Amino acid sequence: MNVQHVSLWLLGAMLILYSVHTHGLRRCQVSVDTRHIEESFQEIKRAIQAKDIFQNVTILSTSEALQSIKPSDVCCMTKNVLAFYVDRVFKDHQEPNPRVLRKISSIANSFLYMQKALQRCQEQKRCHCRQEATNATKIIHDNYDQLEVRSAAVKSLGELDVFLAWIDKNNQETSTA
């Protein structure tokens, strides 16, 4: 009888450890205060969106690239979209207004910080990229490539709130999982 209790206890412990592994290690939380980024974006949102000449086109919103991401792909997709903004959007955007440029630089620096945090997770093999995340990233890049570079950068900056809301939503789910 005692051996049976120990076996059940070990089985329960293994199930708990497996649950922690699948929910905690598959995702890698980005410990950054997105409120600061959101506030910076809100201060420049009107100025950026006023330059958007393609009101009926979207890069992040209608592609559903972010909304269809499974929990196991959140880390990878976050990493990919951060790289998209850092490597393409921020570099392609040319801003003459110094105040707006300062806010964009602040957001870019926050994205670089998040990229470094996710890089550590990837080095620890906690940030896997499955085909769904790769396909969703490709959709975003394809949407971007359909526009002229400067227009695409403006459009992507104007949709930054979509990405920030997605990060917040997935960080809340990670911390409650």
Order of helices and strands: HHHHHHH
Number of helices: 7
**Which CATH architecture would you pick?**
Up-down Bundle
Estimate the global geometry from the Cα principal axes.
globular
List the helices and strands and how they pair.
Layout: H1 2-25, H2 34-50, H3 74-92, H4 98-123, H5 131-145, H6 149-158, H7 160-176
Helix pairs in contact: 2-4, 2-6, 2-7, 3-4, 3-5, 3-6
Give your account of this protein's structure.
- By secondary structure, this protein is mostly helical.
- It has a single domain, classed as Growth Hormone, Chain: A.
- The chain has helices spanning 2-25, 34-50, 74-92, 98-123, 131-145, 149-158, 160-176.
- The relative contact order is 0.19.
- Pfam families: IL10.
- Its main location: secreted.
- This is Interleukin family protein.
- Residues 1-24 form the signal peptide.
Structural descriptors:
7 helices; mainly alpha; 177 residues; Growth Hormone, Chain: A; globular
Can you describe this structure in just a few lines?
The protein is mainly α and 177 residues long. 72% of the residues lie in helices and 0% in strands.
